[in-house]
Design brief:
alpha/beta; UDP-N-acetylmuramoyl-L-alanine:D-glutamate ligase; 10-stranded mixed sheet; 40% helix; lyase; NADP; ADP-dependent NAD(P)H-hydrate dehydratase activity
Length: 312
Amino acid sequence: MLRSGPRAGTSRSAISGFDPGAGHASYRPMTENRITRETLPLDALRKAPEAHKYDHGHALVLCGGAGRTGAARLAARGALRVGAGLVTLGVPGAAQLEVAMQVTAIMLRRVDDGAGLTTLLEDGRLNALCLGPGLGPDRARALVPAALAAGRATVLDADALTAFSDTPKALFETLHEGCVLTPHMGEFSRLFPDLARRLREEPRSSVLRGAADRAGTTVLLKGRETIIAAPGGAVWIHGGAEGGDTPWLATAGTGDVLAGFIAGLLARGLAPAEAAATGTWLHARSAAEFGPGLVAEDLPETLPRVFRELGL
């Protein structure tokens, strides 16, 4: 009998501003934390010699249709490299052959619609989900409600956000505290148009707090300076002039890899804001380690060097 990994809804945390013994609502209000090497939860990232693959969780990345599978494959590779014990791609039937020809260590399961996803998620070992990269808006609208109803730790990115740009309230009403939203500025502006306008005049950290409180979950706004906010007021900041620029990340697919990093860390049991902050640091550090000429595929393959640098 296979051992189960971290259970959905449970988390461990070592990052500043989080009390693991009191649940997600325990973020200290109105605190700001710089994401640095010193804030990383290294103990949570290490793999014990006696650990089984299911001890490190099983991430499910939902994939788009034929000709649109690359983004999900990038996310899945990121989840695997960051240490998830297993990673599966949920693929529509029309794209199964295309994906099967491109992956090896990543598994495939057919997922055609919301009912199929609900059936697949009866397997409680699937403890973290990633939806959005290359998913397509119609498929996103079909799968996101089923994913959120399962109550698993979930990353929503790209099309999983754009699909609800006309009805953001409907999305917010179905989110739970185990989610992480990872919009870039365009996606943020469509989900939070009033808050996006305030970004011109107010501190970004203050605006992101409002977004996290409205959505009821962790929100990560990607940019030169990435800001992560959790409900209740805590904020984590990475990048900008103070954090070190990584201009090589301005290329297609890097955001998909970040979503995969975060999903993999959620599968390993990190709390949502902690997974977002840790994934952001690892993502940027991998880009800096590789340097000029970076393409998205290089990020997961550079991550082992970053782990060795951290003594993992």
